[in-house]
Specification:
Length: 740
């Protein structure tokens, strides 16, 4: 039993906590009901309340049961307070005032001062509780009687009665046989008892002795109908209807007339009452919990009425914030992807083997012809600038999107121009028949003219496009113009090696600085939302705690617990994409490995290790991967532009909604026949069924671009023209379908 009451104490605490979250007014009905039922839950006594309209004889009936005039009775309504009758060794009264004053008196005369209505038939405002102690054996078993003011007299009294009924384990509803079940009594039976889970009710009819015998029979039949229509939850075998003539019963008890007490119906009623209490008292929880369930349902509905709007508001805020963050994260990742890919292409271009393969021959010839500076500007610098801009544009894209740190330009300087000092001319004049072969400017530049110069240029092409075998070494040694050609080749190799090494170092440092540009700050949420989030957490915790306590006492609820709100980190934080950087391992790229090795100048070794690519006379056809790279950049730019537009819009959907819209929704139906024809033709050009999704449109466009890009047919004029016409139609179709 003690363990059961501990559980009820936890339930009462949970009810009070939930009530506090509702900020109810102290005088509100729900607040009063919660306080009453919580106090009653932990009360070990079994309370029996006598309830009914004024002048029905409630106090008279109780006095008859107690065997004396303990409670005040009169012909007019007298009871002006809720009087609790408890067991005591002698008759005495305790009055508790609202200011904390406690008044103890022997007997019950003091009730005339504190527990009856005043001259204006008003209850006293300063009384908190009234208790009467009486030495009755029934009370000694832990039973308490509750004498309530009469109803249908004053609203203030009605409110007090309604409140106190919740604290009664058994209700004796006193009926006046002369006006059986008035409209007010029927309303109170429904509103004050049944709807609040109070179903342990016994009806007692008074004043039946004042009726004629024929009338008594008719009233008894009506009483049976009332009793049968009310589904009282009493122990099996007990009636919920009794007749007691209260005043004759009191007189019989005062005189000690047993026969008169029996004929008044009091003895039979007392016997039934004691037996009913003996069964219900050990399991008071089954009586009290239905009232708790009714009140808990009101609390839960009130809590949900506060929780749900706040939860919807916070979810809406979170969805918008998460959508913004999701868009920014996706943009950051796309920009970072484009940046790292472009940097990777630049790094690959700067690898020494690639530079030597692509530029050494032309650079050496330009050096031999004293046109190196022109070549450096028109060829090397042009190619470098294009690759630099391809990388830097992503950082400016990030700056425009996130407004973080402004990017710096990628500045890669060129080394000093190659210096070549001519070797001494051999004594033989076979190869030196023409004058003008001299070193220029102390080795800054040099000029060869005539057949010797032409021979040097030819030797450069020969040496770089043909592997020199050991048997050719003597020939190379004996040829002056080949010696000069080797010096040019070596000078260019040194130049490109220095350029590659320095540029790669600058590029690595530049790439590290990009992390400060391609990032964004997740700002703190508004204080108003933070406060609402905390309030929501408290409300949901109170709701869930109440559910758990109700489940412990086997009260099932139609409501589901709220899921715990994830903890929100309301601090400023930065997001910076950190995908795996593109790294080239020395084992996979011989150029990187070669740069890591000692670059000691060894003219013959370096010349012989160079792979040949004869310079093409016509522009080469772009490789498939180059077209793929162009298309990839186009896709990234298009995606980022779309996200920028979304960020600028006043309201945007979450990422999930966006994906659903893009992938699943068919374009809206056109309004005119001309539009219908254009769209039908556009689907046909892309090779799609009508009403294909936007995702399918984009995929079809991607496939056709990779197939018909004009750059793929540079050296095939007829096919290139056909590809241009095809791409014009494809672009037009894509524009029509994507703008729907």
């Amino acid at each position: 039993m003690q363990q059961q009451y501990e559980g009820y104490k936890d339930l009462a605490d949970s009810l009070k906590s939930a009530s506090a979250l509702l900020n109810l007014e102290r005088k509100s009905q729900l607040h009063q009901d919660i306080i009453t039922i919580c106090n009653h839950l932990v009360n070990p006594s079994f309370r029996i309340a006598v309830f009914g309209p004024f002048n029905h004889g409630k106090s008279t009936l109780l006095n008859a049961m107690l065997g004396n005039r303990t409670l005040p009775i009169d012909l007019i309504p007298t009871t002006g307070a809720s009087i609790t009758v408890k067991y005591g060794s002698d008759v005495r009264t305790r009055i508790m005032l609202l200011d904390g004053t406690e008044i103890y008196r022997s007997g019950t005369e003091i009730l005339q001062q504190f527990a009856i209505l005043d001259g204006n038939r008003q209850m006293r405002k300063d009384v908190a509780s009234v208790e009467v102690f009486c030495p009755h054996p029934f009370l000694e078993t832990g039973v308490e009687f509750l004498d309530l003011p009469g109803t249908n007299d004053r609203d203030e009294q009605d409110n007090l009665v309604r409140e106190q009924l919740l604290s009664a384990d058994l209700v004796i509803q006193l009926l006046d046989a002369r006006k059986l079940m008035t409209l007010g009594e029927r309303e109170n039976l429904r509103d004050w008892l049944l709807d609040r889970g109070i179903k342990t009710v016994i009806f007692v009819a008074n004043f039946l002795n004042l009726l004629e015998p024929d009338e008594q029979k008719q009233v008894q039949n009506r009483l049976l109908f009332v009793a049968e229509s009310f589904r009282a939850e009493l122990p099996p075998g007990f009636s919920n209807l009794y007749r007691v003539d209260a005043l004759p019963a009191l007189r019989a008890r005062l005189k000690g007339d047993v026969a008169a007490a029996n004929s008044s119906g009091l003895a039979a009623f007392e016997t039934a009452l004691q037996n009913i209490v003996g069964i219900l008292q050990p399991n008071r929880g089954s009586v009290r919990l239905p009232r708790v369930e009714a009140i808990a349902s009101q609390i839960q509905l009130s809590l949900k009425a506060k929780i749900d709007p706040i939860a919807i508001e916070i979810k809406s805020f979170d969805d918008k914030q998460n959508s913004k963050i999701e868009i920014k994260q996706k943009a950051a990742n796309l920009i970072y992807k484009g940046f790292t890919t472009s940097v990777g292409e630049l790094r690959n271009w700067l690898a020494l083997p690639k530079l030597l393969t692509k530029y050494q021959a032309d650079a050496a010839v330009a050096l031999a012809e004293n046109n190196f500076k022109v070549w450096q500007t028109n060829t090397l610098k042009k190619d470098l600038t294009q690759l630099q801009l391809a990388a830097v544009k992503w950082l400016y894209q990030a700056y425009e999107f996130f407004q973080e740190e402004r990017p710096q330009d990628l500045l890669i300087p060129f080394p000093s121009e190659p210096q070549v000092i001519l070797p001494p001319k051999p004594s033989s004049t076979d190869d030196l028949s023409e004058p003008g072969s001299i070193a220029v400017g102390g080795g800054i530049g040099w000029l060869l003219g005539g057949p010797v110069g032409a021979a040097v240029v030819g030797s450069i092409s020969y040496l770089l496009n043909k592997n020199i075998q050991k048997q050719d070494e003597q020939l190379a040694k004996d040829s002056y113009h080949q010696d000069v050609a080797k010096l040019c080749i070596t000078a260019i190799e040194d130049y490109l090696s220095n350029f590659s090494s320095q540029a790669l170092s600058i590029l690595t440092e530049y790439e590290q600085k990009a992390d400060k540009v391609i990032c964004f700050e997740v700002s703190q949420e508004p204080l108003e939302i933070t406060n609402k989030r905390e309030n929501l957490q408290q409300l949901q915790n109170g709701f869930n705690q109440l559910l758990r306590e109700l489940e412990k006492v086997n009260i099932l609820s139609n409501h589901q617990p709220y899921k715990e709100i994830p903890k929100y980190s309301n601090t400023k934080r930065k997001y910076s994409p950190q995908p795996n950087r593109v790294q080239i391992s020395p084992e996979k790229d011989p150029g990187v490995k070669r740069q890591q090795e000692n670059t000691t100048k060894n003219t013959r070794t370096r010349v012989e290790s160079v792979s040949p690519p004869p310079p093409p006379k016509t522009p080469p056809s772009p490789r498939k991967e180059e077209v793929e790279a162009k298309f990839r950049d186009w896709e990234l730019n298009e995606e980022i532009a779309r996200m920028k537009a979304e960020m600028r819009s006043p309201g945007f959907k979450t990422g999930k909604q966006q994906n659903t819209t893009q992938s699943n929704e068919a374009p809206n139906q056109p309004k005119t026949q001309t539009q219908k024809d254009k769209i039908t033709r556009a689907y046909s050009i892309l090779g799609l069924q009508a009403n294909a999704s936007l995702a399918e449109v984009k995929q079809a466009y991607r496939t056709l671009v990779k197939k018909w890009h004009p750059d793929l047919f540079v050296n095939q004029p007829q096919l290139q023209k056909q590809a241009q016409e095809k791409m014009h139609l494809v672009n037009e179709a894509y524009t029509i379908l994507s703008d729907k």
